[in-house]
Amino acid sequence: MDKPLIVNSWNEWDPLQEMVVGSADNASFEPVEPGSRPAVRNAPDTLFPTGPKSKEAIDRANEELDGLVRVLESQGVTVRRPEPHDFSAPVRTPDFEVENQYCAVCPRDVMITMGNEIIEATMSRRARYFEYQPYRKLVYEYWNADPRVEWTTAPKPSMADGMYREEFWDWPLEERHAKMHSFEFCINQDEVVFDAADMSRLGRDILVQESMTTNRAGIHWLRRHLEPRGFRVHPVHFPLDFFPSHIDCTFVPLRPGLILTNPERPLREGEERMFLDNDWELLEAPQPVLNNDEMPLYCQSSKWLSMNVLSISPTKLICEEQEKPLQDLLDKLGFEVFTVPFRNVFEYGGSLHCATWDVRREGTREDYFP
Ligand code: DAV
């Protein structure tokens, strides 16, 4: 029999063997730019900080990331980390300039494994244009180790002013409401744009959320790239989410037949059919322990980071330590639930699923939606 592939991951839940966990080293505050208007929580008129994060904020997040590494290693998972990168450095291309970059806390946003292929996303924000760099050494290692490993970088968009719809940020709520069914956000449809975290992998079937960070041209590129390789790409929409970005706080597959859903962000009518017709259960997550006002000051994500769980296998997963209601639900469903404190990572926009990138899981490509 052939040697197992070093890069092999077809879904979000098969038994985990190798994973990259992010790092807060050298992180900076995300700058204001056309694709992002960071705001201090509960203080929209306060200027958002700029430049490098404090040593304390970085140490607090790194401690929790190291705690996640320990749990994964205790379960036999090989853990890899990103290379250091100077995120305080400005970026200048022929099309834009930005005063600093962001961080390598959330590899999920940039990198995705599609079976035996590694894809680097285009990204959607200027400060994240070069965020693939901390992972390149690992990508070369995997790619050199096995000729069956495929490596694809998606076409880089210009990120010039013309790629963005900057008025988006100033739309009054009624206008947002009126426009929510057209799924037009802060990026327009001219160039191919996607963040890897807008995708969710279910064997042959790949869900892609249309969002502030993934446009229809991005989904079109993914379809043209993935469908000849035997995947089916399904665009999905959550029309009650006015600021959608990344699918993993909204629609989270836990094992074959079960998806954790966000009670405040139902699927667009009709899009649930594929799941219900195949006897998959869509199960609402309980309310998070924190409400939006209680989230960390500089965190740009919602309270629904609560449901950003990470599967070690179809029967074991990791949940944030304080999210007791979700832990109890998962326990009742028969999962073995591991917990780690992760609230200090929230400031960097993600929780357990965001802060990781799975390189190798057991299993092969299954067809769950025949
Ligand atoms: O609040 O649902 C989560 C972003 C994760 N990277 C949210 C966005």
TrEMBL record:
Domain of life: Bacteria
Region (Disordered): 27-54
Gene3D superfamilies: L-arginine/glycine Amidinotransferase, Chain A
Keywords recorded for this protein, A-Z: Transferase
Keyword Transferase: yes
Family of this protein: Belongs to the amidinotransferase family.
Protein name as annotated: Glycine amidinotransferase
